[in-house]
Amino acid sequence: MSDSNFHIETLTVHAGVEHDPSTGAVMTPIYQTSTFAQTDVAEHKGYDYSRSDNPTRTALHNSLAALEGGKHALAYASGMAAIDNMMKLVKPGEQVICGNDVYGGTYRLFTKVLAGYGVEFAFINTTDLEELENAISDKTKLVWLETPTNPMLKLTDIKAVAEVAHRNGAWLGVDNTFASPILQQPLSLGADFVLHSTTKYIGGHSDVVGGAIITNNTEAYEQLKFLQNAIGAVPGPMDCFLTLRGIKTLALRVGAHCRNATQVAQFLADHPKVSEVIFPGLDNHPQYELAQRQMAGPGGMVSFVLHGGEQAARIIANNTELFTLAESLGGVESLIELPAPMTHASVADSPLAIDPGLVRISVGIENAQDLINDLKSALNRI
Ligand SMILES: *Cc1c(COP(=O)(O)O)cnc(C)c1O
What is the model's pTM? Predict the structure, then answer.
């Protein structure tokens, strides 16, 4: 669907999905095939081998590109595979400036894998433009950040950072996993690349792992496409289908996540056993004003700290019923976790280490009062 005048709710339902030309099937079929018959030697109908391209994946690419307002999208086997492909555009000796509050797996990939190949990484607080101005230089190829961050939910001004990056001849890549394209579209704010772990809000049902990169830079897209085929970090047709199916309800789900998280965050903020609630929708959030300006809603993630510290945090995490104790986020069901020993164990003993008493919840689309009652009874156990 080429018409970019449609609103995002319409794009979630229709973009990329065309009625199957051979049967009229309304939903894109799962083209569960590795190879495609050729009409003559090296002549085919656009598909020759499913590592290179597959029609179910093409539909997902077109959908993701439309949602982020980009020209090109590529889907990957996981969010990490997408980030790894992205970083292969950076050569040894070049530098990546990365936000200092990023997904633990991103930090691990950068410091434990890619640094060994000669790419330089600098971790800074991207919410502070002065820190960025001081760190950036002509060897900086890429600025990489998350907003909101995982798990501290800090916000960075995408437009302002894009301006600094471009003035210094660097690209800006934004990991938009926490916001989803419903709440924020980084390309429209000047970013060069958008990344998603589609495992989270985009897939939305905790049943598929995937990643994506979206860009308007055709030259970089062609390099990424070459790399993807050369390296092979591709999602299977079934995974693409599940992700496409999830996208149909993305706008509805994200709306419900935001409404429920707002109520849950308010409940926690008013609770005497809770010492701090971090949520971009509360007016005491350090970047509340930026959240209002940059995002269409506060998101579904809430982090909080209890007066009882780590011990109390462990009690809460073990005593909720609706909130499942699990890693990941962005699915329809509510999850609870302690980032320090779980999702962010890979940053322990690093400058990015997380307070062991921090609790992170991914607020699902259940009834808000049921979720609040669940947290209330877990809090009573402390
Ligand atoms: C989960 C996550 C990733 C990694 O994605 P996978 O699909 O698990 O490989 C990257 N960035 C953020 C912000 C995430 O939450």
Answer: 0.96
